[in-house]
Structures are given as structure tokens and as C-alpha cells.
Specification:
Elements: H1 2-8, H2 18-21, H3 25-53, H4 56-61, H5 68-88, H6 112-125, H7 132-150, H8 158-172, H9 175-186, H10 195-216, H11 233-265, H12 270-288, H13 297-305, H14 312-332, H15 339-356, H16 362-378, H17 381-392, H18 398-412
Helix pairs in contact: 3-6, 3-7, 3-8, 3-10, 5-6, 5-12, 6-7, 7-8, 8-9, 8-10, 9-10, 9-17, 11-14, 11-16, 11-18, 12-14, 13-15, 14-15, 15-16, 16-17, 16-18, 17-18
């Protein structure tokens, strides 16, 4: 019987010989290093302009750096500046960001300078978006164009995959995130050969991107929260509740996304849409404060360093305001991604849960809040788990995260995503 069962089992996919994989190492390494340098360059330019806009400039004008007036003025001015770039730059600085996800299309080279400029201005001015989507688009387009020009024998379809993996590795400072995202993408496609043969080149690119970023910028995502040593029944209950609440809250933004996009699209022109978005973001900043501005990575660290410095009501306000700011910034035309702002929203929600119920462990609250929010906003299961785990660096939370992801995923799967088609209809 055992022999008959063995004979009926489908044959396993053949393993690629080493000589078939070796030619991909050099292209993957080149893409990894270049993608990281693009990411570091765009981020550094945005950070330097941000320090000017939110430091010496208001000081010289005699205006408070965190004053409502200054936040409102800078956000509206950022909307005007980015709107001007989108209006006048070749290709309008890329497609409408509400219509694309992490899998960016290949853009003509002439479009990329405008996209880079719009991204740097956005990062400096304070809208609640991160650099991931536009940087991936730039790297995918550069890799496809330069690869076809200088290494024409390499399959053209490989360049976008290498660039995406390299950029994700650079963004998170580790190739593990790239491997998980690529593996999740490949799971829905027919694959010749073994999984690791298919992820070999992307993993090489992600590794080179992560190492280059680590050498150039030394990123860290560990919030230095107290680790969870031995999970208890109360921790499991808290994880299930917080992850589910975060997923439901994120789905509220996802459900509102097509309607908010449609409202801004009625203005029809980037010089109206983006300044209008700046006005709304300025009003939100007046409610939430300066901590709810920008992509959110630095601000998450500030919250984690002093979790007792704010009340539950303040954390709740920051959660709602940041999520609304993410929704508006992603709808009105600012070029940016949604991962890092979503991390801030999930962190603030987890800290709110701890403030309301002190028995909720800080690491459990933050990790499961981020997990549920990212599942709703990105629909990337592995990346959501990885990001939540990296933030708290607590092995005791891993099992809780895996369990908490199950009800959270049931709440978001099969429902509209935070992306619309060209006609404004939601993507499922």
C-alpha cells in the first residue's frame, strides 16, 4: 500500500542546477546596491529639507515649530509645490498613487525625476505617507530600462522582481521582508521549479539592498519595549481583541477610500486636488499635533520611549487623526506609500489599549495593533507579521501574533483593498 501511494504521488518539481542560478547573482547584486542608494538618497533629501522647514525656517520667522499656524502653512504649501510638480513634470510624476500598489508599473525614464521630486517634497512637508511606493516605482523603472540596455540577455521580466525585492530589503534593512513578500507573490502564480530556485535572485537583490542600507543609514525598527517572556491566557485574549479591532478600524479607512478619492477627483486638477488635501491635512494636524505628521517612523519611536506620557484619550485621538491623514494623503494625489503611517496607527492603538487596561502588555498591544492595521491596509500577510514582530523583538509574541492574525485576516480577506481602478471602483 505504501509503495502504491508513493507511485501515485505527484513528482516534485526539479531543482535547478547551480550553473543556471549563478548568472543571476551579478545582476541581482547590482540592482540591490543601486536600489538601496536610490532609497537612501531620496530619504536623505527629504529629511534635510524637513529639518529646514521644521527648524531654522520657523525660528527665523519667529513662528513656533509646532504651532497650528506653521503646520497648516507648510502642509498647504507642500500641496501647492507637489501639485505644481504633478501638473508640469513629464508624465505627471507617475500614475495616480491611489490606483497602484507595491507592484509598480515600469515608467518611462523621463517620468522619474518628477516622481523623485514629488516624493522628496512630500516627505519633507509632513503628509502622512512613506517613501516605499514611489521608490519601488523608480527602482523598477530604472532596473528595467538599464537592464534591457546593458544586459539584454537577462530575461526582461526579472528586472522588476529584482528591483522590488531590493527596495523592500533596503526599506526594512533586512532581506527577510523581501523574501516573504516575493514568496507571497509567487504563491499565486504558476512556478517552474522549486520555490527557493525562484526566490534565489530576488533574495540576493534584497540582501544586497539591505546590507547597503545598513552600511549607509543604519536603520532600526526595534522600539525597545519590554519583552514578553511567558505568554498567558490574558495576553492571548488581548492579542485577539486588539488585532481584530485594528483590522476593523483599518477597514473603515479602506471602505471610505473610494469615496474620498472621488471627492478629490471632482476637483479635476492637481493644483486644486493637492492644495485642498493640504488644507484638510492642516486641519487634522491642528487636532492631532505634530506627532501625527510625516511618515511616522521617528514618531513611533517617540511614543514608545514614553508610553506613559500620553493618556488613553490622546492615544485614541492620534490613532484616528493619523488614519484619517493617511486616507486623505493617499486620496488627493501625494506620491507616497501607506506602510509606515499604518505602523504609527497600529502602535498608537496598541498603546491606547495599554493605557485603558494596564494589564495589556506593551509589546502585545503594539505588535498586534500594527499587525491588524497592516493586514487591513496592505493585505500582505507575511509582511504584516514580520513588521509587527520586528518592532517589539520579543520571541514570546510570535505565537500570539500568528494566532491573532487568523481572526484579523478573516475580517479583511475578500473585501475591497485600499486601491481604486482608473474609473474609481475599488479593487478586491
Amino acid at each position: 500500500m505504501a509503495q502504491e501511494t508513493t507511485q501515485q504521488a505527484p513528482p516534485s518539481a526539479p531543482t535547478a542546477p547551480a550553473r543556471a542560478l549563478l548568472p543571476f547573482i551579478l545582476p541581482a547584486a547590482l540592482v540591490g546596491v543601486a536600489a538601496s542608494l536610490v532609497f537612501v538618497g531620496v530619504s536623505t533629501a527629504g529629511e534635510k529639507l524637513q529639518r529646514l522647514l521644521w527648524g531654522p525656517l520657523p525660528d527665523a520667522l519667529g513662528v513656533g515649530r509646532s504651532s497650528v499656524l506653521w503646520m497648516f502653512v507648510v502642509l498647504v504649501a507642500t500641496g501647492i509645490a507637489v501639485g505644481l510638480v504633478v501638473w508640469k513634470a513629464p508624465g505627471h510624476a507617475g500614475p495616480d498613487p491611489a490606483t497602484v500598489g507595491l507592484d509598480a508599473p515600469v515608467l518611462p525614464p523621463a517620468v522619474l525625476p518628477g516622481l523623485v521630486l514629488a516624493t522628496a517634497l512630500m516627505l519633507a512637508g509632513g503628509p502622512s505617507l512613506g517613501p516605499e511606493n514611489p521608490v519601488i516605482a523608480v527602482n523598477v523603472s530604472l532596473a528595467a530600462w538599464l537592464g534591457a540596455r546593458f544586459l539584454p540577455r537577462t530575461p526582461g521580466a526579472l528586472w522588476p522582481v529584482l528591483a522590488e525585492a531590493a527596495t523592500i530589503g533596503a526599506l526594512f534593512g533586512t532581506p527577510v521582508a523581501a523574501a516573504l513578500v516575493i514568496s507571497e507573490a509567487l504563491a499565486g502564480q504558476p512556478m517552474p521549479g522549486r520555490l527557493w530556485d525562484n526566490v534565489f535572485a530576488p533574495l540576493t537583490a534584497g540582501t544586497c539592498g539591505a546590507i547597503t542600507t545598513a552600511l549607509a543609514a543604519r536603520p532600526t525598527f526595534d522600539l525597545k519595549l519590554p519583552p514578553l517572556s511567558h505568554p498567558r491566557a490574558g495576553d492571548l485574549l488581548a492579542a485577539l481583541v486588539i488585532a481584530s479591532v485594528a483590522a476593523l478600524l483599518g477597514m473603515c479607512a479602506v471602505r471610505a477610500f473610494p469615496y474620498v478619492c472621488a471627492a478629490f477627483r471632482r476637483l479635476r486638477h492637481p493644483m486644486l486636488m493637492l492644495p485642498a488635501g493640504g488644507v484638510v491635512l492642516g486641519a487634522l494636524a491642528a487636532v492631532g499635533g505634530q506627532l501625527t505628521l510625516f511618515k511616522g517612523v521617528t514618531q513611533v519611536g517617540q511614543l514608545a520611549r514614553d508610553p506613559g506620557g500620553w493618556s488613553a484619550g490622546q492615544f485614541a485621538t492620534m490613532t484616528v487623526v493619523k488614519l484619517a491623514a493617511l486616507l486623505v494623503a493617499a486620496s488627493c494625489g501625494f506620491r507616497g506609500g501607506r506602510i509606515f503611517p499604518a505602523v504609527f496607527v497600529g502602535t498608537a492603538l496598541g498603546l491606547c489599549a495599554h493605557a485603558l487596561v494596564p494589564a495589556v502588555h506593551l509589546s502585545v498591544g503594539v505588535a498586534t495593533g500594527v499587525l491588524g492595521m497592516l493586514l487591513a491596509i496592505t493585505r500582505q500577510g507575511w509582511m504584516s507579521l514580520f513588521t509587527a514582530a520586528v518592532l517589539v523583538s520579543s520571541p514570546g509574541t510570535l505565537a500570539l501574533l500568528c494566532v491573532a492574525s487568523l481572526p484579523a485576516w478573516l475580517l479583511v480577506t475578500g473585501r475591497p483593498q485600499m486601491q481604486v481602478r482608473q474609473d474609481g471602483s475599488p479593487v478586491r
